[in-house]
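Input sequence (136 aa), recorded before submission:
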Amino acid sequence: MRKFLGLISIFMIISGCEWFKETTISGTVTNGGEPVSGAIVLLLESDTLLAGLSLTNGSITNSNGRYEIVRVEPGNYYISAIKDENGNLQYDKGVDMFGWYGERDTLTGLTIPQQVTVTKGNNLTGMDIDTLYIVP
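Predicted structure, token format:
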């Protein structure tokens, strides 16, 4: 019993340490006010989507459009959501819908991608994407 209590004490000390904490990014993906389920949310180093981009490293939205990306390394990212319409796990221009976390341009109505900075232990919430586009 003493060993067990000792292990619990060690765990409590470690879990309070900054280096042990995981950083998460979370939000909701919607389109026209409706939740988008099954969208793949990616952290990208650039605000450019290229045809053939692999969609295998990210989070998938649930039926309410919610997502959470865990164990995010510190750095600067752009957050993109892609609805893989043909299920091939690649971004296909003219087929797959995509959207960005960012601010809406008042002149064009399009979302301008906004870079986010992740620091260790500081969770980012409310990273919502509210419009998906398709490039012809």
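Checked by second reader. The domain at 22-118 is CATH 2.60.40 (Immunoglobulin-like).
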